[in-house]
Amino acid sequence: MARWVAARLALRKGVTTRLWDPLELPFGNLQLRVREMPSVPPALEEFRQDIVNADGFVLVTPEYNFGLPGALKNLLDLFFVEWHHKPFALVGAGGISGGYRALDTLRIIVPGLVGVTIPTVLPVHRVETTFGPNGPVSDVADWEQRADRLFVQLEWYARALQRARAEGLPGAPARTG
Q1: Are 121 and 150 in contact (CB under 8 A)?
Q2: End-to-end CA distance of the chain
Q3: Is the Cβ–Cβ distance between 60 and 91 less than 8 Å?
Q4: Which of 76, 117, 142, 177 has the greatest count of CB atoms below 10 A from its CB?
Q5: d(Cα 88, Cα 56) in Å, to the nearest integer?
Q6: In the chain, what are the domains?
Q7: What is the model's pTM?
C-alpha cells in the first residue's frame, strides 16, 4: 500500500517523492536522537537531509496493537527541528477501522514535533483484501480519487507552510539549498 501511495503521489506535477521504510534504516531501538549521536551513520544523515529538504510528508502506517508500530515512533523521535512547521498527510491500514487508532495517535505525536497534520486522512479498511502488490484490487478510480484529495490538501499546506518558513516563522529551521 505504501508503494502505491508513493507512486500515486509521484504522478503529481512538481512533486518529488522518496519512500523510506523504517526497517531499512540503521537505528534499531531508539537510544539517542541524531543530535545526540557522536557520529551519525550515513543512511541516517541522508534521511535527515531528505527531511530538511522536504516540504511535506505522507506517513503510511498499519495499526499495531491499537496504536502505531514502535519502528515508526522511533523514526519520528530520531529528529526534532527537521520536522518543524511541515505538513503531514496520514494514511492508515488495519482491520475494520482502517487504522484510525494509529492515525489518532499520530495526530497527537506530530504537533509534539511542531508539525501539522492535515485535516483529511486516508484510512484503508481490511488492507489485506483491499490492496494487492500493485495497488487497490477493486474500486481503483475511487481509491485514486481518495488519494488525490489527500494530496491536494497536503500540497496546499506544504505551499502555505513553505512560505511561512521562508518568511522566518519563529522556531523554523533555516532552509538550505
Answers
A1: yes
A2: 32
A3: yes
A4: 76
A5: 6
A6: 2-166 (3.40.50.360)
A7: 0.88
Contacts of 134 (CB under 8 A, 6+ apart): 4
* DSSP at 55: S
> What's the pLDDT score for residue 36?
80
Question: With contact defined as beta carbons under 8 Å apart, do 51 and 20 qualify?
Answer: no
Residue 132: strand pairing partners: 135
Query: Residue 22 has which C-alpha cell?
Result: 523504517
Which three-class secondary structure state does DSSP give residue 105? helix
Q: Is the dihedral angle over the CA atoms 129, 134, 139, 143 positive or is it negative?
A: positive
Distance CA 33, CA 25 (A): 14
10-residue mean pLDDT series, the chain (177 residues): 94 92 74 77 88 96 88 89 96 89 96 97 92 92 96 97 85 53
Q: What cell was used for 94?
A: 488495519
- Cα three-residue angle 104-108-113, rounded to 5 degrees: 135
Q: Tell me which H or E stretch contains 89.
A: strand 87-93
DSSP string, 145-174: HHHHHHHHHHHHHHHHHHHHHHTT-TTPPP
